[in-house]
Amino acid sequence: MNQMTVRIPFVDLKLQHLPIQTQLQQAINTTLERGDFILGRALSDFEAAFATASGTKFGVGVASGTDAIALGLQACNIGYGDEVILPANTFVATLIGVLRAGAKPILVDCDPQTALIDLEAAAKAITPQTKAIIPVHLYGQMVSPRQLLDFADTYKLLIFEDAAQAHLAERDGYRAGSVGTAAAFSFYPSKNLGAFGDGGMLLTRDADVAQKMVRLRNYGASQKYFHVESGTNSRLDTLQAAVLLEKLPYLPEWNRDRLTIAQQYDDELAPLAASGIMPVQNQSGSGHVYHLYVIKVNESCMSERQQIQDKLTAEGIQTGIHYPIPCHLQPAFTYLGYQQGDFPHSEKLAKEILSLPMYPGLSSSQIKEVTLAIARSVSTTLHPNQSPVSVGSKAA
Ligand SMILES: *Cc1c(COP(=O)(O)O)cnc(C)c1O
């Protein structure tokens, strides 16, 4: 980052922690007093609370969201010789999780409006080896559970949700994490529910999957010093679970705040649609938990995405790109054999998307500043005979 003063950061975690700081410190102190740092009481309490809140049965805390995917797939008995379908348009950890489980990743394109996995493309990718599909509830919007369940039923596939960006998201009457056999969550600090470091969890309604996951995160042990399989060391720290347990009751309120912010962005950016600036579509209404608020700067826009981002940076407004390079074009994975042009919608989105500041506590006037700055960055490149676009103000 340059030295320019940031007036509106991309995320601000202090805003959510300072009002409950005493409570959080108390939770940490209680763990210090108990001394049960590994697999302690706050961990089992948080596992039960998060599973219940998400509408499912079991939670198994692990060291990260990536581990929740890798070990979670193994817990579902998915591995060598199995094909797993996932979107090319996701954070690279989804792909890494599949590879670490030993399965073969089969990437498919996304829907250009929602940026979510395209189930028609997924249907075409099915072979006799296909065992599972990983819908990624990207940006906080769930892939339609109704369509997913139909799809999985038709092709006899296991659903493994990547819900790392979708804590307590809802759609079709389902909560994220309760649609498939199992679901992976991340508690990376800036996720909708974040720890004070790394953390993750597998949710499942299947007792066998949960039991296997409990072993896999703890060296494959079914009881102390008795190892029925080869696992690893990947436990969610009791301290992190204590923090998360304390934060969980605030999550619905924080998610509502994100939705309100998104609605204001939607309203104020609506006049810019004609200039080629549009939000990624929300097709799930109030169940979207807006981990990220993402706009697309399409070809018809007179400013390049880069110009707009640079102008916002110059005005002290931080933005992000999630993600600039789709999984199949990452140098690490060229050996999988994919090429430029394989997933045109994902490739186009990677060039067009821009994530705007989004966090509970972002104020209405800050949102206005962001949208006005975007409008200015578009209108400064207008031709002289075009009038500048006004935004967010009915009077203008
Ligand atoms: C954050 C994230 C992950 C990985 O979680 P970590 O806790 O960072 O390992 C996986 N998938 C998606 C979609 C994510 O956003």
UniProtKB/TrEMBL annotation:
Sites of N6-(pyridoxal phosphate)lysine modification: 191
Coiled coil: none
Keyword Transferase: yes
CDD domains: AHBA_syn (cd00616)
InterPro entries hit by this protein: DegT/StrS_aminotransferase, PyrdxlP-dep_Trfase, PyrdxlP-dep_Trfase_major, PyrdxlP-dep_Trfase_small
Active site residues of this protein: 191 (proton acceptor)
N-terminal signal peptide: none
GO MF annotation, one: pyridoxal phosphate binding
Swiss-Prot/TrEMBL keywords: Aminotransferase, Pyridoxal phosphate, Transferase
One GO term (biological process): polysaccharide biosynthetic process
Family, per entry: Belongs to the DegT/DnrJ/EryC1 family.
Protein name per UniProt: DegT/DnrJ/EryC1/StrS family aminotransferase
Lineage of origin: Bacteria, Bacillati, Cyanobacteriota, Cyanophyceae, Nostocales
